[in-house]
Amino acid sequence: MSLIEHILDLSTLPAERLSPQALGLARLSLLDWIACAIAGTDEPVAVKLRALAEAEGGRSIASVTGAMAAPARMAALVNGATSHALDYDDTHFAHVGHLSVGVYPAALAVAEEVDASAEAMVAAFLVGAEAAIRIGMVLGRSHYNQGFHQTATAGAFGATVAAGRLHGLDAQQMRHALGLCSTRASGLKSQFGTMGKPYNAGAAAANGVECARLAALGMTSADDGLCGLQGFIPTHTTAPELDGGRGLPPKDVFLFEDNQYKLHACCHGTHAMIEALLEAGELKGRDLDNIAAFTLRTNPRWLRVCDIKRPRTGLEVKFSYNWLAGMTIRGDRTGDDRIYQDALTEDAALSTFAGKVQVIGDDTLTDMQAQGSLTLKDGTTLSISHDLAVRLPQALLAGKLRTKAEAMIGARGASLWAMFGDLTGRSARDVGTALRKMG
Amino acid sequence: MSLIEHILDLSTLPAERLSPQALGLARLSLLDWIACAIAGTDEPVAVKLRALAEAEGGRSIASVTGAMAAPARMAALVNGATSHALDYDDTHFAHVGHLSVGVYPAALAVAEEVDASAEAMVAAFLVGAEAAIRIGMVLGRSHYNQGFHQTATAGAFGATVAAGRLHGLDAQQMRHALGLCSTRASGLKSQFGTMGKPYNAGAAAANGVECARLAALGMTSADDGLCGLQGFIPTHTTAPELDGGRGLPPKDVFLFEDNQYKLHACCHGTHAMIEALLEAGELKGRDLDNIAAFTLRTNPRWLRVCDIKRPRTGLEVKFSYNWLAGMTIRGDRTGDDRIYQDALTEDAALSTFAGKVQVIGDDTLTDMQAQGSLTLKDGTTLSISHDLAVRLPQALLAGKLRTKAEAMIGARGASLWAMFGDLTGRSARDVGTALRKMG
């Protein structure tokens, strides 16, 4: 089956055929996405995009984080960029990008427009995310290595599918929506480190909303915008993977189940170590003086990324195994972006502890694994390990995401979970209202 | 000088350093562009985009052809698509695309927003068009052959420059506007033959308006979005031309002076023949029975494109040398898209005349040249020839464009020329009002 037929097939899956496990994760993603958006409200890129939304005005259709309601396209643009501003949202490694920040803003905006239930919005998100993952996989590593940003490019198609599903597009309209998206999707990695990166996520969401809406209005486009002659795939990658889509898993396998969450506001390469230390209950809140030595084994690629031995700024702390190990053991809230202040680099206890840490590259470990051994002052040793690739039970993940939300946005994190921990009876407009008021 | 410095340098050229010849042509382009937009008002793609604009609403900033005022970005989107719907707008061969439909909608919308004079709008268009031409040239043939549509891709940068100049961006802001555009610009040729093609032009204009406005609001982006590492040029062409921009002509050479106008609503490959026949004054309105034979020489590439011997539909007439020769000689208004009806294929006089026409491929002719020889019933022969690459004197071109406008939109064409044949004292808002009311 060609990629476009595969995506069309997927986009019309009835809700009862969606994997409950994947839907559960999509609900958690919603909460995490909202928390990231609220936390990003005061970031400069968010402020500037809200100024654009205010300057344009328009019908009050969909919610803008921390502000007013706006037309759906504009709300998706602002919310996408706002939620990606802190770079703290979820990641899907096979997709090679961040799913929530491109797809959820489109799903929410259109769900508010058509007054869908929160559950219908989550289902539309899940189907859009699956489409984005699969298109991202076919675009593959060569697309990313050439300089494209799957979050924005494959993400726009996911946003189109989510928005199109909520508009109730038939297969032919969805085909046109995808065709329009194929000529609209864009996004470069060379924006990393600038406001252009979160803008990419907003643009993906906005493109999806626009293309789905135009298809609903009867706009037509190329029949196969994805893999047709000079379609998006052949023009945007030199080496399409999975036989151009024919080698993708069937539509009832939900790749979204591998979605990953960033639980700590520091380099992803340090997360396996942090989780391993957190899992060693014996260490909780322990005085760093009681630890004689800590040896960490990690994939060698991380040694060039996050093994800064003596960080000089709060930002460098985010890339320092030995600083983060000390912080984790003594109970610092590594999930709170605001704790990474320059003053941490002069913290005497952390500095002393750093001298006891040894980091060893070990290529038998994947880049999602960490292993370590601690020697306490009394001579006992403790082995720790963690593999980020192992899926957490959802109840456990939920707890961690809630802790993260509370670290990021304080009491609003608890309210968020109280309101939307169970979506039964909730509408997308309830979610939008919360985003407007809590941002 | 790098391409980005070159474009920045160009974008701030003071009005008095712009070539009067190029400005004159830009004024003619404005009139031609408005006529194309008005003529496109009822095309399906225009109707659908107006429906989108009406659904979104928003502040009444800039004019939408045949409708209301809307936010600048939306007006640019609708007007770009509307003016390209008939595929009858101007072409720049070195740019490899259509300049007016991407750049003028952005220039007009922002000029209305900031209440600029019509002359300031034309100057901004010209500078934007020069930027689009140069970026299109560097992207080159490989970009086009890979499947990208310079009208949309290079056009978006031109729209950004035009919009940015009207917003009064300083060099640093313009750099950021171009950087944002580098992650936003898109557009594929695989949309040709669908509503996606005119949508590409609208998207280019809308992207330019959005990126310039965001830069004015203080958004930042990659320093060199064009030729920097994984910037737009290296990610969108395998063979950048002109040494990545270093080989471009200096900024005081105006490449826009080579802009070409489509004067007949049929295949471009037939235009040199039509102009050659029109220039032979002796033929004007002549009875086709008086002509014994017509031999046409044309570049061989056109034989596969527009040498349909017996057209079966009005559309095929647009690709038929022998039908169009008869129509031109007897004085049919080849500039009026509406005359290409299926009934023409059964016109007895044209059918008989077609039997007297011989078309010969001649590779000593460029694809912009035509030569022919007519033998009249009385035995006299007449040689004709035309080269589209030879620039017409502007007064002559103006007459032809006015005739085209009147063929397309009747008396409104004459009013347009009466109102804006001289732009002195006119504001961009006057132009916008005309577009709204006459569309």
Key terms:
439 residues; globular; 2-methylcitrate dehydratase PrpD; alpha+beta; homodimer; two-stranded antiparallel sheet; 60s Ribosomal Protein L30, Chain: A
Explain this structure to me?
- The structure is a homodimer of 439-residue chains.
- By secondary structure, the first copy, chain A, is of the alpha+beta class.
- Chain A has two domains: 3-260 and 393-438, Orthogonal Bundle (2-methylcitrate dehydratase PrpD), CATH 1.10.4100; 268-387, 60s Ribosomal Protein L30, Chain: A, CATH 3.30.1330.
- Chain A is 50% helix and 7% strand.
- Chain A is built from 17 helices and six strands.
- In chain A, helix 8 packs antiparallel against helix 9 (196-216) and helix 15 (394-409) crosses helix 16.
- Chain A is globular.
- The two termini of chain A are 44 Å apart.
- The relative contact order of chain A is 0.14.
CATH class of the largest domain in chain A: Mainly Alpha
What CATH architecture label of the largest domain in chain A applies? Orthogonal Bundle
For the biggest sheet of chain A, the summary is:
4 strands, mixed
What spatial order of strands do you see in the largest sheet of chain A?
A: 4-3-5-6
Shape of chain A: globular
Largest two-chain interface: A-B, 54 and 54 residues
Whole-Å distance between the termini of chain A? 44 Å
SSE topology sketch:
Two copies of one chain form a homodimer.
Chain A: H1 3-11, H2 20-40, H3 44-56, E1 62-63, E2 69-70, H4 72-84, H5 100-113, H6 118-146, H7 153-166, H8 171-182, H9 196-216, H10 232-236, H11 271-279, E3 291-298, H12 314-317, H13 321-330, H14 348-354, E4 357-361, E5 369-376, E6 381-387, H15 394-409, H16 411-420, H17 428-438
Parallel strand pairs in A: 3-4
Antiparallel strand pairs in A: 1-2, 3-5, 5-6
Helix pairs in contact in A: 1-6, 1-8, 2-4, 2-6, 2-15, 3-4, 4-5, 4-9, 5-6, 5-7, 5-9, 5-17, 6-7, 6-17, 7-8, 7-9, 8-9, 11-13, 13-14, 15-16
